[in-house]
Amino acid sequence: MDRNSAVDALVLSVKASGENNRFAIVLSPEKGIFTVTVYGGKKGRFKSLVSPYHSGKMWLYSDAVKKTVKLTDFYPDRCRTGIRESLYKTCAAALCAELILKTQGAVDWHTVWVLINGFLDGLDICTDEQAQTGLLRFLWRYINLTGLYNTGIRCSRCADKMPICFSAAENAFICADCLESSQEHTAGFFPLGMQSIAFLSAVLAKSPKEARTLQPDTESLRELRDFLYYIAQSCADTRLKTLEAGRGIL
Ligand SMILES: [Zn+2]
């Protein structure tokens, strides 16, 4: 049945379709992820309106026979132009959008909607330095939502001591007493210092406002990036192109 509808939507990505039209991949808290055809994309008034990370009310026409969804109108109330002005922020937002697209169905749409909009709102107005920890907080929260990896920060073996590393092969945080030296050389082994462990704990246990106050040092940021990029990619079960494209930036 053909029908008109209106939904809250966030544009995750846009690509050209022929000379004039475009396909937008959007996220809606009610409908999840779907593709919308944007006609007259190059010249029409949707040209700048339908851009990545814009969100607002979207009017759609669904054609059940052709199995297409056409955009009839869009009123973005958040445009987050600050993201486009920074190369780092652009890469960070693209990584999160790709992770959501490649883990479709792993996380409840309403929860993803709140998480990604909060992240993008922060990214829009923060400094590049703050954006680095913002990205790490988003990834850890998202990994936690998928339920694919152990996110309880206690040694998984003795169920007691504070861990000093994570083993992806074992899906376990491990403390100094329980760690076997041979493990340190296996794939997916990540040493995590005290600052990194404190950061990961705070992101899930404390309020977003409190978690934002934690600023790990340079070495800890490197550790956290290695760990979280690897686990995020494992959750997606495929290579994340944005991580490769953003190498040296992210
Ligand atoms: Zn232990």
In words, what does this structure look like?
The protein has 250 residues and is of the alpha+beta class. It has two domains: 3-79, Nucleic acid-binding proteins (OB fold (Dihydrolipoamide Acetyltransferase, E2P)), CATH 2.40.50; 82-245, Up-down Bundle (de novo design (two linked rop proteins)), CATH 1.20.1440. It has nine helices and eight strands. The strands form two sheets. Strands 3-2-1-4-5 form a five-stranded antiparallel β-sheet. A hairpin with a 4-residue loop joins strand 4 and strand 5. Helix 3 (87-102) runs parallel beside helix 5 (128-146). The longest helix has 19 residues, at 128-146. It is elongated. Bound molecules: zinc ion. Zinc ion is lined by residues 155, 157-158, 161, 175, 177-178.
Blueprint (SSEs and pairs):
Elements: E1 3-17, E2 21-28, E3 32-38, H1 46-49, E4 55-63, E5 68-78, H2 81-84, H3 87-102, H4 109-125, H5 128-146, E6 165-167, E7 172-174, E8 189-191, H6 194-205, H7 208-212, H8 218-236, H9 241-245
Helix pairs in contact: 3-4, 3-5, 4-5, 5-8
The structure holds zinc ion.
The site of zinc ion has 7 residues, from loops.
